[in-house]
Amino acid sequence: MQEWTQKAEEIITASIEAKRLFWAQEGPRILEVVQVLVKAFREGHKLLIFGNGGSAADAQHFAAELVNRFTIDRSPLPALALTTDTSILTAVGNDYSFEDIFAKQIKALGQPGDIALGISTSGRSPNVLKALEVARERGLYTIGLSGGNGGAMKDYCDLLLCVPSSQTPRIQEGHLLFIHLVCALVEEELFG
């Protein structure tokens, strides 16, 4: 039990430190994301979010908080996770390639003025990079959420935010903090 307690405390300390460093490094850019989203929502545009694995779950979480509510009872905000339609994902993956599963949806749903937010802890997910590239070509504002130095995402994003860690769990915990901060601030600005 003592070993587990010590290990748990090490994990908690590392998580807190990664989040603290994330805010210290990326705070101004997080606030810029809030500004970009508020402007887009006020102008009738939508947010398209995508990623793989835990990042897919984060995309769904983010969209749910915006469509339903975060802490304020309010009108829904237009956000869509491109990770949820298994028929689209499997049809595109089967007929074309897994690399196209988000890009095809961006082509179908994305309009100039919309925002594409790709999540990849490594910044190297080929399907996320391709979707960001297509989004840029179509006139969407592109945001990347990553870790470390952001990998190749920096070449495809108008705005890139990186949790300063090389550990996937710490990066994902930082991404959750980002989602909750952005939801709280967007909601307060639009409905508070």
User: What is the architecture at the second tier of CATH?
Assistant: 3-Layer(aba) Sandwich
Structural class comes to alpha/beta
The sequence of SSEs as H and E is HEHEHHEHEEH
What's the pLDDT, averaged over the residues?
Answer: 97
- The poorly predicted ranges are none
Q: How far is the first residue's CA from the last residue's CA?
A: 46 Å
Largest sheet: 5 strands, parallel
Question: Could you explain the architecture of this structure?
Answer:
The protein has 192 residues and is an alpha/beta fold. The chain has a single domain (2-191), classed as Glucose-6-phosphate isomerase like protein, domain 1 (Rossmann fold, 3-Layer(aba) Sandwich). 56% of the residues lie in helices and 13% in strands. It has six helices and five strands. A five-stranded parallel sheet has the order 2-1-3-4-5, with helices on both faces. Strand 1, helix 2 and strand 2 form a beta-alpha-beta unit. Helix 2 (54-67) packs parallel to helix 6 and helix 4 (103-109) runs parallel beside helix 5. The longest helix is centred in the first third of the chain and has 41 residues, at 2-42. The radius of gyration is 17 Å and the shape is globular. The N and C termini lie far apart (46 Å). The mean pLDDT is 97.
List its salient traits.
192 residues; 13% strand; 5 strands; single chain; Rossmann fold
